[in-house]
Design brief:
about 950 residues; 7-stranded antiparallel β-sheet; about 20% helix; globular
């Protein structure tokens, strides 16, 4: 079979994509509204720290598919308490039952290639603790490059026995004054005796040797070693279940390999031979550059050495696994550890290159405050550069019991930035012993009600975006890996886990964030190798040409680029001369990644800065911000593919051409609603708005502007998203949007006066352990805050910290009005004194409401607050509850005094004051009239945009007093 056809069929298999013609109606509104099994997300399923039992296994897998709406599983054995033994006959008996159960359900499986993680040791880390792979193949484990050195002064004859513990990679003498480097290998005999007479000057004699590190993982840089790992793991699964591969088993998944092991000095024994085959000469005299500045050739030396190591890593581990997967009718995916390190040289090597050899490049979004979202575009651009259809993210691990709205927010951001296959982390077999929250299954009260809806949402995203097609962007950005290589050295001050060295001028993660999140500009990173091999200049554009994903760029950004290859610089000059705008940020190119190329790089820069007729603009943005980048992008007057007008902030988006027709996906990942007029440069006769949250489809109201573009007005709340799809792609054959249960819209209002620390309103309680709590906090008077909480199972998580400044600054002993407007029990707007301060989605099902006051050990004080004029109103105006505390207390705690309900916390326990009888949602009671609220806009500068009468309430002798 031809390789291209073979890979195409396997890609279809991996995401279960049907290989059919347009006439067979692959794309229909019916299938979008309720996507089939092949589009569902496949989560990691931890078999964790317990004995797995066959019947329970089948029961859980059935719930995952039929209750949670998952599409199968990737089984991850985990922890020392896991039984039966990894890869034992009993293990494969259970695994076979999982395969058969998945097959019977029409579901799919992915082979996770490790016991614990990272991949490569067969259980040594986060598994059994046994170094199985190391025991089987001690010669095939991680290697490390060590350096030893001593000084020799001028015209000295030396005869010295060197301590050699591994394979000698280089033995040189470096003159630190002249930077001359002499290869001394011929002066070292078999007994490791160095005999040499040093020339005049001060010389550093340096021995570099490759030694076995002791790390139990496979030598990631060696294809031969990785083949042994595959033989022992992947091969064992195939031996037991050959008929399942390409049918029920559709992929393999690796987890968190990295080069920061071996103290960031990972090496391999045949490095020099591979280098010489690539470059035509031995690297031995370059080795000092791995640690030291060796003069004008440092940047070129480091680029050759580190690029070679990155290639060996990507080809050795990812490429070898991917080749095996191709041969066994499945796809290979997985992700690198520490993807969010800006200088990847000693971690991933080259994060874009990691994806080059994979059928599905991947990334990991986990907890711990890691800004992985600033690197989604690196991985999705890797797929774009090397013509891969699919991009994976393992998502939500160790993020804690995050609210449902965060699940949506993260997913929307990922899919607008090019991810199209989200693997949820995770479902846990033993849900009583979860190591990394959240536990995403039917058993978790925090998620079980809404998880099926969320997984259908992911399925709809996959249905339209997990397809081969063209990514459309006007802007390209050079991936500045050559600058990172040039600025890197081993044993950097930051430590190997954090990448070792912060390379000066590095700004590409921030430029990426500014473009996508603040300016609404999508882009594609271009790898230096791809600029050379797959890009040409034509029709006033820089064209990236692939069999499927070809892109056309009118603007190229060089972010923080100091070092660049001469061939890249020549191609960029050609693009500029043809009319492509070139934007440099933070610093400009001044040195070459190639030997002897500095003068040419500098000459090209000089010509471009002088300008030429018909050429593009050359702009230097010394300090990239949203404002400076917006100005730089707008100067040329080029018409963008997508532009946003009129909203508080633009949407994130992606535009793909699938089978010749446009698919746009817009998402609001900001904290506030926005309405944007979207200007579209690619015309469509007619289009549909397709809602991935509900499955609903409706005609889009497209109009035409004076300059011939189309425009659409679209409103999105936080964590909402929408497809705009060319009708020529989708067969309009109906489809049933999700049948939503009737949901109530209601408002909760109260007057609040904080005596100590904070006051909290609780609502949407299903019981006294599960509810939302809005805490109004003045414990730090200079920075009062609204702190929304979600209580689940008796434990609280803080959803946000909203600063209350300007008009909405709240203070102790000064009353303020609170209004919570809940729409369809799914969305809440929070007003203070009629000023909107917060809006968010959630599960605000009408339920008990009340107040909670606790204590703060930091201040050794109880929280104390007073509440008045508590009112609950339906959207149709019916008042369900009202009390002004003129007499009785309808709540379970607190004291009525002076016309207020005073609730004081306790140093030993929380005080919860719940309404004693929950109004049924239908009643209508009569209450005193009060003036209708006059909404005001919250101006962060503290200026009042619209005035409204507001009375100040204060306490005097225990009674409420009003001051107008």
């Amino acid at each position: 079979m031809k390789k291209g056809m073979f890979i195409g069929i396997m890609m279809a298999t991996m995401l279960h994509l049907p290989l059919c013609s347009r006439a067979e109606a692959t794309y229909t509104t019916m299938d979008f509204s309720l996507p089939g099994m092949k589009w569902r997300p496949i989560p990691l399923w931890f078999w964790n720290n317990t004995t797995v039992e066959g019947n329970q296994l089948e029961t859980q897998l059935e719930h995952m598919v039929t209750t949670d709406y998952y599409g199968g599983c990737a089984i991850l054995p985990f922890g020392e308490g896991f039984r039966p033994g990894y890869l034992s006959p009993e293990y494969f008996t259970l695994y076979g039952r999982a395969i058969e159960k998945a097959r019977s359900l029409g579901a799919f499986m992915s082979v996770y290639d490790e016991y614990g993680f990272p991949s490569g040791s067969m259980g040594a880390i986060n598994g059994s603790g046994v170094t199985t792979f190391k025991n089987n193949h001690p010669e095939a484990t991680v290697k490390r490059l060590d350096k030893s050195e001593f000084t020799v002064t001028g015209e000295t004859a030396i005869s010295r026995k060197l301590t050699v513990k591994g394979q000698v990679m280089s033995l040189v003498a470096w003159n630190r004054t002249t930077n001359e480097i002499i290869n001394l290998r011929e002066h070292l005999n078999e007994a490791n005796q160095l005999t040499w007479t040093a020339p005049e000057g001060r010389w550093q004699v340096m021995l570099f040797q490759c030694v076995t590190d002791g790390d139990p993982n496979v030598d990631y840089l060696s294809s031969e070693a990785v083949s042994l790992f595959i033989q022992d793991t992947h091969g064992a699964y195939y031996k037991h279940f050959p008929d399942a591969f390409g049918q029920t088993v559709i992929s393999t998944f690796f987890d968190e390999p990295t080069m920061y092991r071996a103290q960031g000095r990972m090496w391999t024994g045949d490095f020099n031979a591979k280098f010489e085959a690539q470059y035509g000469f031995s690297p031995e005299t370059l080795y000092p550059a791995l640690w030291y500045d060796i003069g004008p050739t440092t940047a070129a030396a480091r680029n050759m050495l580190f690029a070679m190591r990155s290639e060996l890593y990507a080809r050795g581990f990812m490429g070898t696994i991917s080749t095996w997967a191709d041969e066994h009718n499945i796809l290979a995916t997985g992700h690198q550890d520490q993807e969010e390190i800006p200088n990847p040289t000693s971690v991933a090597g080259d994060l874009m290159k990691v994806g080059k050899y994979l059928s599905m490049p991947g990334i990991d979004k986990i907890g711990g405050g890691r800004p992985t979202e600033n690197f989604y575009k690196v991985v999705s651009s890797s797929a774009n550069n090397w013509d891969k259809a699919y991009v994976m993210s393992e998502t939500y691990g160790a993020m804690g019991n995050i609210p449902m709205e965060t699940l949506y927010q993260v997913a929307i951001e990922q899919y607008t930035k090019g991810i199209n296959h989200l693997i949820p982390h995770a479902v846990w077999y033993n849900d009583a012993n979860v190591t990394f929250l959240p536990e995403l299954s039917w058993r978790n009260a925090l998620y079980n009600k809404n998880l099926p809806r969320f997984n259908r949402f992911l399925s709809r995203l996959n249905y339209l975006l997990a397809r081969p097609g063209q990514h459309v962007a006007d802007v390209a950005m050079l991936y500045p890996i050559q600058t990172q290589y040039a600025g890197h050295h081993l044993d950097g001050a930051k430590g190997y886990y954090e990448g070792g060295v912060d390379v000066p001028g590095t700004d590409y993660p921030e430029v990426s964030r500014l473009l996508t999140d603040e300016l609404g500009v999508d882009f594609t990173y271009l790898h230096p190798e791809v600029i050379d091999d797959r890009c040409r200049v034509a029709e006033g554009r820089l064209l990236m040409e692939n069999e499927v994903n070809s892109e056309r760029f009118s603007t190229l950004i060089l972010p923080g680029v100091k070092t660049i290859s001469t061939t890249n610089m020549k191609k960029i000059e050609q693009a500029w001369a043809a009319g492509v705008d070139i934007i440099f940020t933070t610093q400009k190119p001044s040195e070459s990644a190639d030997p002897e190329g500095n003068d040419e790089v500098q000459a090209i820069m000089a010509r471009m800065q002088e300008g030429a007729e018909g050429a593009g603009r050359v702009i230097f943005v010394e300090k990239p911000t949203a404002e400076t980048l917006r100005e730089a992008l707008s100067q040329g007057g080029k018409t963008p593919d997508i532009a946003f007008q009129g909203g508080k902030h633009p949407f994130n988006y992606i535009h793909k051409i699938i089978e010749g027709h446009s698919v746009y996906y817009f998402g609001n990942i900001d904290a506030s609603s926005a309405e944007n007029t979207i200007l579209i440069d690619t015309p469509m006769e007619a289009a549909s708005l397709m809602n991935p949250h509900t499955g609903e489809c409706q005609a889009a109201n497209l109009t035409t502007t004076a300059d011939g573009r189309q425009q659409l007005t679209l409103s999105l709340r936080p964590n909402q998203s929408m497809f705009l799809v060319d009708d020529a792609l989708i067969e309009q054959n109906g489809g049933q949007p999700e049948q939503e249960e009737v949901r109530m819209s209601y408002t909760i209002e109260a007057r609040v006066l904080i005596e100590k620390l904070s006051g909290s309103i609780c609502f949407a309680a299903s019981d006294e352990r599960n509810y939302y709590m809005w805490q109004f906090n003045v414990s730090q008077p200079a920075t009062p805050k609204l702190r929304p909480h979600r209580w689940a199972g008796g434990g609280a998580s803080v959803l946000d910290e909203v600063n209350l400044l300007g008009d909405v600054r709240i203070q102790r002993n000064r009353a303020f009005d609170v209004r919570l407007e809940i729409e369809k029990e799914q969305y809440v707007k929070t007003y203070i004194n009629n000023i909107l301060v917060d809006e968010r989605s959630g599960d605000f099902t009408y339920g008990k409401f009340g107040f909670r006051q606790a204590h703060d050990d930091t201040y050794s004080s109880e929280e104390t607050a007073r509440f008045d004029d508590v009112r609950v109103t339906r959207s149709d105006g019916r008042v369900l509850f009202y009390n002004d505390f003129s007499s009785q207390n309808p709540f379970t705690a607190g004291t009525v005094m002076g016309g207020w309900l005073r609730v004081q916390g306790n140093m030993s326990r929380d005080i919860l004051a719940w309404v004693k009888e929950l109004p049924d949602g239908i009643a209508n009671i009569t209450v005193p009239l009060r003036p209708a609220p006059q909404p005001r806009m919250w101006n962060l500068a503290g200026m009042q945009l619209t005035t409204a009468p507001h009375a100040m309430v204060y306490i005097q002798n225990g009674r409420k007093m009003l001051k107008h």
